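This section describes the prediction task in plain terms. A model, or a person checking by hand, is given the sequence of a single protein chain and must write out its three-dimensional structure as a string of tokens. No templates, partner chains or ligands are provided. The sample shown here is typical of the held-out split.
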Amino acid sequence: MVSPYVRLLTKCEWQDLRDIRIEALTLHPDMFCASMDYTKSLTKNDWKNYIDNENSKIFGLFDNEKLIGITSIFSTKENPHIAILAMNYIKPNYRGQGLVKLLYQSCIDLALQNNNIEMLQVSHREGNDVSKNIILKYGFKYSGEKEISWTDATQDIEHIYTLDLCMMRNPYRVV
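The expected answer:
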């Protein structure tokens, strides 16, 4: 039996990404920033571009060859020194086994390889204590909150956390 593992998705897996993303939005429509309508409107090329893009990478968590989880890391042109973790999702039958560590560590490792990225950022919606606990467990520090419009047509607080990659690269650096 092969242990679950993480690797970057390839363009040919666009349908698997689409299916697991739709599953995530179906089961937890109030926890993600993307709406179901938007997600279902994406074309084959849109999904392929999400997977193979110079500003973002999508990791898949696999049990043998079955996609059981996803996460993404991306940066924006406006602030290329900050990478954002998003789309974190693990299928319900695989939760509670510590597999999220594989997803988080893959993103952290990738970001550490790029010296232009100084900080990782991740966020969660008010009341999502599971995400909060995972985020804090992996060393992210609370950095603020803002009120945003969520795809379920409500206004709610988004809690934001950061991880200082410069400090991780050089823990003896004097700040």
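For orientation: Helices lie at 14-27, 36-41, 44-51, 100-113, 129-137, 165-169.
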